[in-house]
Amino acid sequence: MGFVIDKKSKKTVRKALEVLGKKNFVFIMHGGSFPSAEGENTGFGTINSNGGKKFIEYSKDLFDAIQMGPAGKTKSSDASPYTGTIFSNNPLFIDLKELTTKKWGGILSCETFDEIVSQNPNKGKNRTSYSYIVNKQEEALTEAYENFIKLNDKKLIKEFDSYKVQNKSWLDNDALYEALAVEHQCDYWHNWKSDTDKNLLNPKSNEEKIEFAKRIDEVSQKYAKEIDRYKFIQFVLNKQNEETRKFAKSNDIKMIADRQVAFSDRDEWAYQSLFLDGWCLGCPPDYFSKDGQAWGFPVVNPEKLYNGDGSLGEAGVLMKNLYKKMFRENPGGVRIDHIVGLIDPWVYKKGSKPMPEFGAGRLFSSPEHEFLKKFAIPSVDDLDMEYSSDNEKRVKNLSDKQVKLYGRLIEKIVIAAAKEEGLTKDSIVCEDLGTLTNPVAAVMKEYDLLGMRLTQFTVPTEPEDPYRCKNITPHCWAMVGTHDNKPVSEWAKSLINTHEGYLHVKNLVEDLFAEADNKDEIIVNMTKDKDFLKETKLVELFACKAENIQIFFTDFFDMSETYNTPGTSGDRNWSLRLPDNFEQMNTINLPQILKKAIISRGKDFAQKNHKIIEELDEIK
Fold it and tell me: Residues 581-617: pLDDT tens digits?
């Protein structure tokens, strides 16, 4: 059972979090998973909707921030937000309902909106209808654009013109791609038949510059309407996003963005001259994948990141502008997915397996590699050559100068961008899960970056495992699971009456019931009772010393479905939503969990905080 989330109970919960040393309590939910208001479910969630704003109000005084998923424009054939564009935002996050109101001059008809809602194939279900809404949203926004032109609202036109000028550096490129996608009837540029169009922003000679400029003018004139429509859609979304941020701020809620490691197909086309030709980003062979993971994402060319004097090169400027935009639009900060990919990326030859025997390696840590050696920061003497070339700990010696070189992108681009937008480096959330290379660990330490501790990843046979409660340090973000994990309820269910479950339970009892006289009895009961195990795993999260806590929406609302299962594809992934009636749902019993977290700190700590324990007990 959950608890009544009213103003009084929220106040008590916040007091308990403060007692436990928590500075931030953050809710995680990707944009498409936001609920809809009654009669407004188009098939995709957005925080800009009335349903999204209702959730912001629900979060007030309970959470400090909401961490979103990546916000880029996704492929029509792939709902994964981690392959979205880096500058353009996803048109699916436009609240269509608002476009039917006087505020926007009714540029979308109520009939069109109502038809989209009534025909939503997942109406009444907590699932997105991705393929459905991708097409319907496109049709609706085309109607809205055409009516905007007819409306001829001088104030709105002035705002739109200003937006186009301010964002010209990336908006022109993305809009041009949209025009070419129409021209070739295909939004995947590798399949375009024209080599000129494939390389339109990547001329290799003065002759090509002249030729390509003429082609750009030709396309721009032929598809002027489509280009302007694309820009208008981004304008509408930006305007709604700004209003939502103000609404969230009025409710004391900040937004945290998510920067994926990938570049979309559109970005690869626009900035292909900045990428390392013939190389892709991936993951090396490991416990989870013996052949490694071939992501296929382009790799930024290190020679384009910095100039000879150490200043930012063309790629460096692009990256910094991206982060500045993200920090400016998300005052709660930015989560960086796969921080290893920024500091010490694993790269492989395009078309090959991401394995050392096929020429793969660490971009900055392969001094023995025939090609990659020119980017290497350590020398061969700095490597432990007794281990195989794919060993993640093989860089054994690192000078202060080398650590600074590995951390250049973090210092000169990410941290610098945060500071220039008025934020500190603590606004950077680093997804550093899994085995870290020594250079990555050294950079994290050098810049005192906030990494993650995911308790579901605890290896129970390793006493010093960094994800175990007793080993989690204050300066980090802790959570039970992320978008790629089973909900904690299913995690607990899978471990009942198993030897692995026993090992987890044994550790939990050691860490959280240290002063109990009946430890053996507790262990026996917890290995058999999934609800007891689930609750204790949540107690562990709040009992650990981490100052910053995140909780995924499936865990907080005690849901049993997994949001995304890595290594699989299909409509089940990325489609789970918070039900529209979320206010009536059972949540985890946070007051009781916090009470037990306080008690787990020992009798003296509990006695010192007996009043807050009593207050937590009073919450029903």
Answer: 999 999 999 999 999 999 999 999 999 999 999 999 9
438 Cα distance to chain centroid: 24
Structure tokens at 320: 């910094």
- Give the tokens for residue 474: 């204050």
Task: Please state, for a pLDDT cut of 70, what percent of the chain lies above it.
Answer: 99
> What total of structural domains would you count in the chain?
1
User: What CA–CA distance (Å, rounded) separates 451 from 444?
Assistant: 8
Burial 369-403, CB ≥16 within 10 A → b, else e: beebeebbbbeeebbeeeeebbebebbeebeeebb
Q: Which are the contacts of 157, defined by CB distance < 8 A and separation ≥ 6?
A: none
Burial 181-194 (b: 16+ CB within 10 A, else e): bbebeebebeebee
Residue 396 lies in a domain: yes
Q: Give the orientation angle of helix 519-528 with respect to helix 499-512, to 10 degrees.
A: 140
Distance CA 263, CA 490 (A): 33
> C-alpha distances in angstroms, 30 versus 201, 330, 336, 405, 576?
32, 14, 15, 34, 10
Question: What tokens appear for 560 in the block?
Answer: 């049993």
Strands of the 346-349 sheet, one edge to the other: 293-300, 275-283, 346-349, 361-362
CA dist 532 and 522 (Å) reads 10
Handedness of CA 211, 216, 221, 222 (dihedral sign): positive
Contact 558, 587 (CB under 8 A): yes
- pLDDT, tens digit, for every residue of 382-424? 998 775 545 778 999 999 999 999 999 999 999 999 999 999 9
**CA pseudo-torsion sign 51, 53, 56, 60:** negative
- Residue 44 domain flag: no
Q: Which of 450, 476, 579 is nearest to 124 (CA)?
A: 579
484 SS3 class: coil
User: Can you give the pLDDT at residue 492?
Assistant: 98
In the structure encoding, which two tokens stand for residue 476, read together? 């980090």
β-strand partners of 178? none
Is residue 600 situated within a structural domain?
Answer: no
* The dihedral formed by the CA atoms of 93, 330, 477 and 583, expressed in degrees to the nearest 10: -50
Are 282 and 358 in contact by the 8 Å Cβ rule? The answer is no
State the Cα–Cα distance between residues 261 and 346, nearest whole angstrom.
Answer: 12
Token code pair at residue 483: 């978008």
Distance of alpha carbon 374 from alpha carbon 380, whole angstroms: 12
The arithmetic mean of pLDDT across residues 315-343, rounded, is: 97
Distances in Å between the alpha carbon of 352 and those of 284, 290, 293? 12, 14, 11
CA distances from 68 to 14, 33, 296, 320, 341 (A): 22, 10, 24, 21, 20
Q: What percent of the chain has pLDDT over 90?
A: 94
Residue 382 forms part of a structural domain: yes
Range of the domain at 281: 271-449
The phi, psi pair for 40, rounded to 5°, reads -125, 20
Half-sphere exposure of 249 (CA within 13 A, CB side): 10
In terms of Cα–Cα distance, which of 384, 385, 368 is closest to 376?
368
Count Cα neighbours of 18 within 13 Å in the Cβ-side half-sphere.
10
Alpha-carbon gap, residue 455 to 449, rounded angstroms: 19
Q: Are 388 and 405 in contact (CB under 8 A)?
A: no
CB 56 within 8 A of CB 583: no
